[in-house]
Amino acid sequence: MLRNYFKIAWRNLWKNKTFSFINILGLALGMACSLLIMLWVQDEQHMDRFHANDSRLYRVMENQHYVGVINTFASTPGILAENIVKDFPEIQMASQALWEEQTLFTVGNTFEKEKGRSVQGDFLTMFSFPLKEGDPKTALKRPDGLVISQKIADKYFKGQDPMGKIIRVDNKDDLMVTGILADMPEASSLKFDYLMSYDRWQKTNQWSKEWGNNGPRCYVMLAPNASVDKVNAKIKNYIKTKNKDSNVELFLQNYGESYLYSKWESGKQDGGRIEYVRIFSIVAIFILAIACINFMNLATARSVKRAREVGVRKVVGAYKNSLIGQFLGESMLITLLSLVFSVLIVLLFLPVFNELTTKKLSLNFTDPTFLLLLLGLSVVTGLLSGSYPALFMSSLNPVVILKGSLKFRASSTYFRKGLVVLQFGLSIMLILGTLVVYRQIQYIQNKNLGYDRENLLYMPLEGDLQRSFPTFRQELARQPGIKSVTCAQSDPLEVGSSTQGVRWPGKDTTQLILFSQNAVSYDYIKTMGIKLIGGRDFSMDYTTDTSNYIINETSARKIGYKDPVGKELTMWGRKGKIIGLMKDFHFNSLHTAIDPLILHLQRGSDSTRNWGTVLVRTEAGQTKQALGSMESVSKKFNPHFPFKYLFTDLEFANLYKAENTVSKLASYFAFLAIFISCLGLFGLAAFTAEQRTKEIGIRKVLGASVTNLVGMLSKEFILLVLLAAFIAFPLGWYFLSGWLEKYAYRIELEWWYFVASLVLAAMIALFTISFQSIKAALLNPVKSLRSE
């Protein structure tokens, strides 16, 4: 019996080659897209979940309360870990960890910048970053300990045993290699090529030992039976017990969740990368549904061709269940063929997809989970696409069929039209979404930031440059291609330092307001290209400027000064005057509104810190010459450090790399959705034209023109596309409005986005239908009416 069913299914596939090709291609493309997205989603969901203590690992977060707002940060006091583990027995281990740093490594004549972090001793015990050599419990206990990757070991100690060897760091400290890291897991969001002692870093950064200063991250591992809710209740006001003026409340976030759930609003979790996971999961469902609708539509439309077969089978005793099994079996056969082609498509495009998403996804056919994923995808697709045709065909009345009077009921026709509406509704939503996402990304990248990011470069203020910057600045400014030079605590794209220690006459001391702050050198305003709308820039002609300030418009509004220039301002106990008012400019992500900002001159203690950025404005069209000048002067003043630089405009684009990736993926998937929809529309148009061949012939004999006939055949499908748009537009507006609200600066959902998506969908549909319509309209009526 099964063999017979298989033969029948294969014969039908071979007999109807065009429709079989359309079905298999549509399903294969739909399944390939869904498989790619599912691989990406699975990789995102597994990120940071490989740690053995996953369920017990948390990062400590802060809710800081200010006037009318709650700000959430992952930065904590630098002494939190060592104290919190002593004061709360539910916390088994704790470790501070710094942001990613670039540190100069020197061994003999080999020196290069390497990326890594400074962490406390228990870090390697808490997290499952395995060591090839060394003891994770003791490798970072000593201040001069250094754990390096195998890549670094091969670079500096090729052919040698690196354990116990010395590496000079930043040309001032000698550290001993106490461990070799195994290859970093791809599923880790924390990336590093070395780990060094946090205690060593803290000795040169005394500010990190104060409860009122934040910076490092704090990670904790709870005891096996500890309740995170109870721990949260206990640690909530912990900072206030150490600093009575604190406005901070602590809470824990599971470390494995922090990658996907990284955004906070008013002290509450408000999304993050999980939004992209949800979006593309929906897109995968949309595309697979569109492919399945194709199959259902074409199968039910062509059911008249197999009606007599069904009638004969029923007359000779076939049960309804056996017919359902037969048609579902045929559907599964087509699905399995489509699955084979979809896997080949994925293998072909996976390298491109990996490059676009910066992933290293692969098809692991030895992984039971992946095989179950493939099986589940094929079963769901086969049942979804074959269920309605199977039920419809098995319910046909054999008496009506064999009399030759089979007619489709209105309900089945409406159902088929409803599927077309659903199909194009999903496609129009994808087109609309792609258009809006693209426009938002363009808006971000072309928005006036309030400063000129063209011809603006920056490089780290490090090594000997920290001590000799004034002289370095003067000599570099004289070089060809250089317009101006300055330095600052923060780079142009992110001012990460903030303070509530700002006072002014009449301020309510009970109300806390957070101000961003940046320590800068002379010519900062000029070099950045920031517009001053009142007052002046810092000047060497005024010795009092070391205590003065320049503020932005948002700061003036927060303070309540209508004309702030000349007014008194105190920050960190340093009383001075506001000498300049800057026009607001974007110094952080466009996802957030512009914060109040205060600029102050670097003092001696500021300029000798081991961080900072040199900013260089080059003459337009002389970038190459300027880079040569920068390199030669840098090597003269800082010969032991490699010359490194960054372009502000390129780094700005990198800030929105995730959005760019989403935009590109959305456009590719929208195109595929439309293409799959058009495959089904092509098949339906061909079937409709075939069914109405005699009608077309009679109309031609009676004088109908080709234009009239094409319009008659196309009108029904265009009306369905219009109905699809009517349904898709409200849903598209709802979801896209919610997505755009995540941006503080965003485009408006204008009417033309909706019209453009409708016109594009209608034109594509009309082009698809016209081919079959014109072909039918040009057919010789003598041939179509010969049987009459």
From TrEMBL:
This is ABC transporter permease. One of its GO terms (cellular component) is plasma membrane. It is found in: Cell membrane. Residues 282-398, 669-780 form the ABC3 transporter permease C-terminal domain. Residues 20-237, 427-627 form the MacB-like periplasmic core domain. The lineage of its organism: Bacteria, Pseudomonadati, Bacteroidota, Cytophagia, Cytophagales. It is a multi-pass membrane protein. Its main location: membrane. The keyword Transmembrane applies. GO terms for molecular function: transmembrane transporter activity. Keywords: Cell membrane, Membrane, Transmembrane, Transmembrane helix. The chain crosses the membrane at residues 21-41, 276-298, 327-350, 370-393, 414-438, 665-689, 717-736, 751-771. It holds the Pfam family MacB_PCD.
